[in-house]
Write a sequence for this structure.
């Protein structure tokens, strides 16, 4: 059994009329940046895939924040209807609130902040990046739907890495179209042999390695008191 990569704690974050639960992973050694996970399509902070990637990022020296973007009641409603997971405006507003909280938290003071989105969470992450350019420094999307960010894409100037499985052709095309609308440095990485959930041996490991390298390259130290409003 491998040694722990980080110290973990549960935090509660207020987002407008909701209180969101989040797990904070603090690397035991060097801390080179902070990454907020943006879940989508019915996923949450307990997702094995997201927790695996978070552990790998912790080992690379990155703080991770896995937050449930829906309350428990909202999750139950979404399980029945699948409606909220596609409410990009709601998800983006929650991501923006958590990003603002991070920007003013002593827990990650001075660290650059990045967003790691998955599925519809990729759209919410990019929307937030366009709204909060002074907070969000880089974005990674795993099997994401950046096309759903729509009119917000031209406002995203942060370096953005789009990762898609080779055996997910529709999502590849949607990512290619979205990439052409992004204003900043953008790279589309296609994982050979991988499907939408990257369940093939070694696929998720590649995703974690690429994401870690992207964030370590693009996250830079920030003053602890920088502002949270870019409206």
């Amino acid at each position: 059994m491998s040694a722990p990569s980080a110290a973990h704690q549960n935090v509660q974050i207020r987002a407008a009329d909701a209180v969101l639960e989040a797990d904070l992973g603090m690397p035991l050694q060097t801390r080179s940046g902070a990454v907020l996970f943006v879940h989508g399509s019915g996923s949450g902070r307990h997702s094995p895939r997201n927790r695996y990637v978070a552990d790998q990022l912790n080992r690379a020296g990155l703080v991770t924040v896995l937050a449930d973007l829906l309350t428990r009641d909202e999750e139950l409603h979404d399980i029945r209807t699948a409606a909220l997971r596609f409410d990009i405006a709601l998800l983006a507003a929650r991501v923006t609130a958590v990003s603002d909280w991070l920007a003013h938290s002593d827990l990650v003071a001075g660290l650059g902040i990045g967003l790691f989105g998955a599925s519809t969470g990729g759209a919410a992450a990019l929307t937030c990046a366009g709204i909060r350019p002074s907070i969000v420094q880089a974005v990674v999307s795993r099997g994401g739907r950046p096309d759903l960010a729509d009119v917000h894409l031209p406002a995203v100037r942060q370096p953005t890495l789009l990762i898609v499985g080779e055996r997910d052709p529709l999502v590849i095309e949607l990512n290619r179209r979205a990439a052409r609308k992004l204003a900043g440095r953008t790279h589309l990485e296609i994982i050979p042999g991988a499907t939408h959930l990257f369940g093939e041996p070694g696929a998720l490991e590649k995703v974690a390695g690429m994401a870690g390298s992207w964030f370590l390259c693009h996250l830079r130290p920030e003053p602890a008191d920088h502002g949270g409003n870019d409206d």
About this structure: The domain at 6-218 is CATH 3.40.50.1820 (Rossmann fold). Helices lie at 48-59, 72-81, 88-103, 120-131, 169-179, 203-218.
